[in-house]
Amino acid sequence: MPLVDPITMASAVSKKGAASQTVTVESSASPTAETYNLLPVSINQTPLAQTLRHAQPLLLSGVLAFGFSSLVKDPVAAMSSTTLPLTAALQAVYAVICLPVAGRGGNDTAKKAKPRPGEKTSKKRAKEGGNNAYVLAALSLLITALVTPFIYASMVLFGAPFLTHGSHTLLCAAHLSLLGLFPLFYVHGVDASAWAAVGGFRAPLDETFGGLAGALVGAWLGAVPIPLDWDRDWQRWPVTILVGIYGGYVLGKVIGGTTAWGKKF
Amino acid sequence: MPPPQPTPKKAVPAPDYKTLKSQWDAAKRKKDAEDATKKAVKDQAVTAVEPNNTDEIKLRELRRAALEGRRKKAYQSRWAWTAGFWVWMLAIHLVGLGYFTSGFLLTRLQLDDKSLCDVSPAGQEGGILPAWPGKGTPEGGCWHPKTFDKAVVVLIDALRYDFTVPVDDNAEFHNRFPFMYETAVREPNKAFLRPFIADPPTSTLQRLKGLTTGTLPTFIDVGSSFSGTAVEEDNLLGQLRGAGKRVVHLGDDTWESLFPGYFEGNLSRPYDSFNVWDLHTVDEGVIEHIFPLMEEGRKGEWDVVIGHLLGVDHAGHRYGPEHPEMGRKLRQMDGFVRDLAGKIDERTVLIVMGDHGMDSKGDHGGESDDEVQAALWMYSPRGGFGRTKPEFAVPPATAVERPVNQIDLVPTLALMMGIPIPFNNLGRPIEEVFAGPRGNSWNNLAAAERVAAAGVKRYQASYFAARGMAEEPASTPGSPADLWDKAEGMVSKGNWVAVYSAFAEYQRETLARCKSLWAQFNIKNMILGIAVMGFGVLTLLFYVSKGAEYDEAVDDPELDDAEKSLEIMGVIPDSELPLENVLERKLVAAAFLGAVPGLIGGALHAYLKGTGDYYRGAAMAALTSIATVGVSLYEIKETLRTLVPSTIWGWMAAVFTLSQSIGFASNSYTIWEDSILLFFITTFGFVTALSALRIQSLADRYMAIYHSVLFVVLGRLASASKLCREEQMPYCTSTYYASSTSSTSALWQLAIPFAVSLILPTIIKAYLQPTRSYEGLAPAWIGYVFRTGLFMSALYWVLDSADNGNWISGLPEKKLKNLSVYTAQMVLGLAFVAGTTAFMWAPPCVSIVTSASKSTPTRAQVAILGYGNAHGARYLLLPLNFLVSLILLSKPMGGGALAILFWQILSLVEILDSNSLSATPIGPVMLAILGSFHFFKTGHQAVLSTIQWDSAFIPLFSVRYPWSPLAVAMNTFAAQILATVCVPLLVLWKASPKKKGALAETSKKLGAFVGFFAVEGWMSMMWAGHLRRHLMLYRVFMPRFATAGVVLIVVDLVALGVSLLGLRGNTVAIGEVFGWAE
C-alpha cells in the first residue's frame, strides 16, 4: 500500500482533510488521548536541600551582579572566566543536593502506569541512590555542553550575528543551556517522552521546567532593548540577553517551585 | 457501500473542463441512483431492472440543476455583498488617511502679489547707495545697480558638493570635476564655489520652485513630481519676462511644465526627464544647443539661458555614485563647463549649480546630509567677485562650512540682473557677488542686504494679513520686528559692516520663524483622521473576532450530502440561507444608512458656518457610518471582551501586531524594523515547532517540525538581503546591490534568478504532490509556463547588466535595451494575460481514475486524485502569476527574496494545517508579517529614497501612464502584494470541493490580514501626529506613516481586486465541476 492513498469518492466525503494522508488533522486535534503523564519534580526534603533551594536564586543573582561591570566592559572575558564557571558550579551543586536524580522524584508513579523506554536505567539509578548523583551531574553537564551549539544556532536564527561575535553568542547559549536545560537533564536524563512533554509545554510546572520557561521568555525579552539608540555600554551583545536569561530563570524557577507548582500551561 | 479501496493510479490524460464535468456528473448520477435504490449494482442494471426509474432520474437531474443554479446565484450575491463590505473598508481607510494627511502635510498660503520694478520695498528716498542712473528701471537696475546684462544658468542635477572639491581618495565620484574648484582658487575675482544647501524635500520639482521663487517648498507638492504643475507665485522667470528679457531653456522638461509659455519657443529644447536609464540624450541635447547660442553673432537672440543636465542624476539613480559611468559623466561635465566658461563674455555671468545631492546609492528625495548638499559656482571673466575675508578665498573643503541656502540665489540673481526680487523671497544676497573685487564694498553689501530684507519684511506683513494673524510686536527682544527696528536704526550711522550683519540677522531670524510657521499642523483634521482610522480598525477587529461564528456554515460534508440528496429528491425544500442573513449585507446596509446623516450633517455644518470645507462631510459620514456598522456588529453579540485573545496563538498575533505598531513611536524600533520582523518570524516558527511536539502521529509530528524549521531557516536566509538606511550605519552592510555605493547587481547576484527558475517550480510541485494535486493544468503550468517565465526574467537581468556594463562592445546602441524590454514585456504578458486567462478557464487540479473495484469486480470505482486539495491547488495558480511578474520587477536579489517568501508561505499553510491553527488569527498575521519583512528584503526601507524608480523602465522605454507608476508600485510593494494574493490560500489549502463557507472565512482572514496593516497605519499616523515637532519627523516618522498609509491602500485594493475576485473565480470553477457546496 502506498504511503499516500489516492482518495476515493466515498472516503472523501466522510472525513475532513482525509485527502492529505501525510498530515492528519483529526489526530493532532486531540492530543490528550495518549498524553505522557509527567509529574512535577519535588525538591529533596533534607534541610540542606531546602536551604540551598532558596539560596540558589540569590547566589545566581549575586554571580550576575558581581560579574556585571566586567560583563559590560568585555562580555567574552567576563562570561568565560567569571559567570559561566561560577554558574556551572552552582547549578551542579544545586542539582546534586536539591534535585532528585533521573528516574526518582515524582516521575516514578507516572512511569509505573505506563512503561516507557529508558525506564530500566532510571530504576537502576533509583536503586543505586545518591552516590551516582555526581556521575549524573557530570553527564548532565556534558549533555548541556553538547546541546549548546543547537541553542547557538537558534540564537542565530533569531537574528544574532551570523559571521561575527561567534564566541559572544556561543557563551550566551551556554548560559541558557546551563540555567534552563541542565536541571532538566539531571531529573529526566534523555527520556524522549519526558522531553517531548517538556518541549510541547505539557509538563507540569516545577523548579526545573519553570526555570526553563522563565529563561526562554527572559532571553526573548532581553532582545527588546538592543535596537534602542541610547548608546549605553550594557546594550552590547549579548549582555541584555544574558540578564534576561538570569532574571527569567530565577523568576520562573521561584514561581514554578512555589505558587505555580504542579500547574500546567 | 463498501469501504474505500485504494485504487491503482493510472495515467489519465489531463481531461478538459467539459469532459471532467461529464465524468463527474456520470459518477454522481450513478451514486445518486445507488443511494436511492439502496442497491449496489451497476447503473445499467438499474435501468434494466427498474425501467420506471428513468423518469425519476430525469426529474432529479432537473431538480439538481435548479438547486445548483439557486446556490450559484446565492453565492454570487453573497460575494457581491462581501466585496461591498471591503469597498466600504477601503473608503474608510481613504477618508481617514486623507483627512489626517490634509492636516499633517505642511501647507503654505500662496500669495499672488508681484514685486514691481519701480516700487522698492526699502523705500524710494534715501538709501545706502547714492542714486544710480536708471534707478527703478530694468535698464539700470530696479532696486540695486545692475551688474550683468545676461546670464547662463547651468543646472547639473544632483551635483553633490563633494563631487566638485578635491577629496583624497579614488572614488569614481571624486576628483573628476576639478575645473570649478581650480578657477575659484586661481582667479578668486572671476569665480567662487560654495556649498549650496537645499531645503528638503530634495526632488527636482520642489527644488526648481525654491530656486525660482525663493520660498520654502512644502511637502504636499512632492506627490505631483510625476506631473509638474505651473508655478503661480511671483518668481525669477516671471520677473525676467516682465523686464522684457528673453529666456531660453534647454534640457529637463520639468521647467516647461512649471513655467509654461515662459521660454523662447524657437530656441528652447525640452527633453523628457524621467528616462532614468538614458544617461546621455538630455546632456548631449543641452551641449549641442547651448554652444551655438554662445556665438558672437547670436548673443542678441537671448538674455538668459537655462541649461538643465540630467546625466549625473541618472547615473546616480541607475548605477549609484561608485560606478565608472559616474566618473565619465563628471569628466564630461568638467569639459562642458570648461568649454562654456571660455565662451562667456564680460557682460554675462555663468552660474553652475546642483539642485540637490544624492545619497550613497545615488537616490534623493529626503533630507539626509548627502541629499541636501549641492554645489554652487559663479563665473564672470570681468572679475567682479570678492571675499570679505582672505581665508574665504579657497572654497570650503566640506559642505558644512560656509554654506549658502539655495533660496539665496533668488535675490542674488535678481539684483545682479537688475530685476525686482520676487515677492515671496526669503533668501538673502550672496556675499561674494556684492562684496566688490577687493571684498570691502560694505556699503554695496549693506544696500543689497537691506533691500532684500525689506522685501522679506513686506512679504511677512502681507502673509500675516492674509492669514489674519498678528505679527510679534517689536517690544519682544529677538523678534524679527525688533531686529528690523535695530537694523534700520543703524542705517543713519553709516557703519556699513554693522548694518549689513544686522539685516542679515533679521533675515536669518525671519527664515527660521517661517520654517516653524509653515510647520503649522491642522490639529483638528489630524484628530478627525485618527478617529476615523481608529474606529475603522476597531470595527475591522470586531468583524474578525466574533463575526466568524455568526454565519459559519455547519461544515459536515456527510450531513450536507444527505441534505442535498434529500433536496434533489424533493423531500425537503432548498435549505439555502435567506440572503437577509448574510452578515456583510447587513453591514453594508448599515454603512450606507449611517453615512447619509453624517454626510448631510457635515455639509450642513459647513454651509451654515460658512467655512466652505464641505469635504469635512466625508469624515463625518465615515464616522457615523462606522458607528452604525459597529452597532450592527454589536447587535450580533459583539463585545469588546471578544477582542481579548484566549489562546497563545491569539496572544502571539496580538503581541506581534501591537508591539510592532507601538514600536513606531521610537525611531530606533522604526529603523530596525527588519530585524524585529525576523525576530517575530523566528519566534512563530520556534513556538510552532514546540507545539508540534503535541502531535501524536510521529510522521505528522516530524513533518510539522520540519516545516517550522524550514520556515525559520528560510527567514534567516532571506535576512541576508539587506539595503541599509542611513540611520542603520555603521551596524549594517548593504548586500542588495554590488556595493553600498551602487545600484546595480553584482555578477553572482545574476545567478539567483536562474537558481529560482530551476528550483522553485520543483518545490511547489513537492508541496502539491502529497495531496495528489499535481494534476490537471498544474504540471504544464507550473513545470513549463511558470518555469519559462522565471527563466525569462532571469534572462532579462542578464541583458540589463550586459547593457549597463557594456559587456558586448560594438553592438548598436539600444540593441540590448530593446531586447531586454521586449523580454520583460513577454514575461508580464505571460503572467497577466496568459496567466489570468489560464486561471479563469483552468479545470480543477484533479484527475479522475476509474477502475474495477477489488471486492466486487462488477462494480466500477471512481477515484479523484487531488480531491482533498481541489480548492487550494487550483487557487495556487493565481499567486504564481503574480509571483513571476513581481520577481521580474524586483531585481535579482529581490527575486530571490520573493521566491523565499513564497516558499515560506507554502510552509506556513502546512504549519497552520498540521497544528490545527486555521481558526486562530495567527495565520493571516504571520502572512502580513512575512509581507512586511520581505518588503525590506526586496531592497526597500521606509524612506523615500529607496523607491526604485528605475523599475519603471523594466518593461518600458519611457514614462507612460498608468504603466510606469504601476511598475514602480509593484516593485515597491511586491512582498505585500504577494502576501495579500495568498490570503485565500489560508482557507483553501487542503480544502475539498465540499468546503462550505470559504467566502465568509476568507473575508475574515482578510480582515485579520488587513487589520495588521490598518493597525500599523493607524498607530504610525498617531505617532507622526504626536511627534510632529520631533527632530526625526521627516527622516523617520513621516516616511514610516507614508509607507504604512500607502501599503494599507495597496493591500485593500489587491484584497478586493485580486484575492476576493480570484476566490470567486476559483469557487465557480470548482462548483461547476463538483457541484455547489457553498
TrEMBL record, chain A:
UniProt keyword annotation of Lipid biosynthesis present: no
Region (Disordered): 107-126
Primary subcellular site in the record, as a coarse category: endoplasmic reticulum
Pfam family, one: PIG-F
Coiled coil: none
Keywords: Endoplasmic reticulum, GPI-anchor biosynthesis, Membrane, Transmembrane, Transmembrane helix
Compartmental location: Endoplasmic reticulum membrane
The keyword RNA-binding is annotated on this UniProt entry: no
Taxonomic superkingdom: Eukaryota
Bilayer topology term: Multi-pass membrane protein
Biological or metabolic pathway of the protein: Glycolipid biosynthesis; glycosylphosphatidylinositol-anchor biosynthesis
Chain segments annotated as transmembrane: 133-158, 170-189, 209-228, 240-262
Protein name as it appears in the record: Glycosylphosphatidylinositol anchor biosynthesis protein 11
From TrEMBL, chain B:
Membrane topology qualifier: Multi-pass membrane protein
Spans through the membrane: 79-100, 526-544, 587-608, 614-636, 648-669, 675-695, 746-768, 780-799, 819-842, 882-906, 918-936, 966-986, 1006-1025, 1037-1058
Name of the protein in question: GPI ethanolamine phosphate transferase 3
Domain of life: Eukaryota
Keyword annotations: Endoplasmic reticulum, Glycoprotein, GPI-anchor biosynthesis, Membrane, Transferase, Transmembrane, Transmembrane helix
GO molecular function: transferase activity
Compartment(s) where it occurs, according to its Swiss-Prot or TrEMBL record: Endoplasmic reticulum membrane
Pathway linked to the protein: Glycolipid biosynthesis; glycosylphosphatidylinositol-anchor biosynthesis
Family assignment from sequence similarity: Belongs to the PIGG/PIGN/PIGO family. PIGO subfamily.
Principal localisation: endoplasmic reticulum
Organism name: Podospora comata
Feature: compositional bias, Basic and acidic residues: 31-42
Positions of the UniProt region annotated as Disordered: 22-44
